Amino acid sequence: SRKIAFIGLGAMGQPMAANILRKGTELVVFDTNPARMEPLRDLGATLAASVAEAAEGAQIVITMLPATPHVEQVILGEGGVADVIAPGGIVMDMSTIAPTGTDRIAAACAARGLVFIDAPVGRLVIHAQRGESLFMVGGENDQAFEAVRPLLDKMGTTIHRCGPTGSGIRTKLVNNFMILSIAQITAEGLTLAAKLGLDIAMLKEVNAGTSGTNGQFQFNFATKVLAGDTTPGFTIDLAHKDLTLALEAANAVRIGLPAGAAAHAVLGQARAGDYAGKDFTALLDYAADLAGVAPIRLEQGA
Ligand code: NAD
């Protein structure tokens, strides 16, 4: 039978793998933190003791890891995925990493007769938990896409084929650049509103009826920080990484992203302290802190 491996079971990877398992597909899983694997045992996953053990003999290997160095290490490092998986195997990286890293890994995979697909994930942890993620897929090999599509269907509701290899990760970076910049603007706007004595629930309604409406205020902030919940979610540390990647990509093509650079600076400062591991909607608490404003919350039912 087919062997499918899933490596990296963090805030996103664990619920993604859980959905594949719950919907009837067997998985071998691996995470360097054994505690992240345990909940999947109950769903029938086979727990591996190393990357090599997970990937050995697999037809498809999925990675969902923090950043570029982790993905390069797991796929191209000694005893990594590329060392043990047979030619023809599919390596699908779903992490958000540097496009230059994606290009290097894809080329190294191609040189070994492997098919590489970049399929980073849109939306939030709660969507991953519900199997409602969105995927941005790079890679024009239709046969490989058809092989991974049933897995994507179990983890999400929406698949975009963005173009050739590397176009998925580039699409993800541009979209996250917009999300995170809008999150910081939202944090600043709500802090200004609080300082001006405005009712936040009223402001939310007004905002929803105008072209200023945005998913950060209306949905993400509303269900996270404005409800008093700053558990991650998507951490300020990883958000800072994504904006760094966007600025690096902009540098490489000689353009500036001045508003994004300002948001990046705020994230860089926030991540130096306790905020690093909090949900990125805690940018609101950070802005309020700096302004000397009490934490800004929406009343229950407001
Ligand atoms: P996370 O830090 O919660 O999870 C990463 C997991 O990888 C951890 O469990 C860690 O133990 C494991 N890991 C690290 N090195 C490893 C290795 N060498 N071998 C095996 N496992 C290893 O991160 P996350 O929030 O799940 O995000 C994963 C990726 O998805 C990141 O690139 C992130 O930017 C992206 N992303 C996150 C969200 C979100 O809302 N959290 C949404 C979309 C995309």
Automatic annotation (TrEMBL):
Record's keyword annotation contains DNA damage: no
GO molecular function, one term: oxidoreductase activity
Keywords, sorted A to Z: NAD, Oxidoreductase
EC number(s) on file: 1.1.-.-
Domain of life: Bacteria
Entry-linked Gene3D superfamilies: N-(1-d-carboxylethyl)-l-norvaline Dehydrogenase, domain 2 (1.10.1040.10), NAD(P)-binding Rossmann-like Domain (3.40.50.720)
Top EC category: oxidoreductase
Keyword Ribonucleoprotein: no
Entries under InterPro entries matching the protein: 3-OH-isobutyrate_DH-rel_CS, 6-PGluconate_DH-like_C_sf, 6PGD_dom2, 6PGDH_NADP-bd, HIBADH-like_NADP-bd, HIBADH-related, NAD(P)-bd_dom_sf
Record Pfam families: NAD_binding_11, NAD_binding_2
Domain 6-phosphogluconate dehydrogenase NADP-binding, first and last residues per copy: 3-160
Domain 3-hydroxyisobutyrate dehydrogenase-like NAD-binding, first and last residues per copy: 166-285
Name listed for the protein in its UniProt record: NAD(P)-dependent oxidoreductase
Organism: Ruixingdingia sedimenti
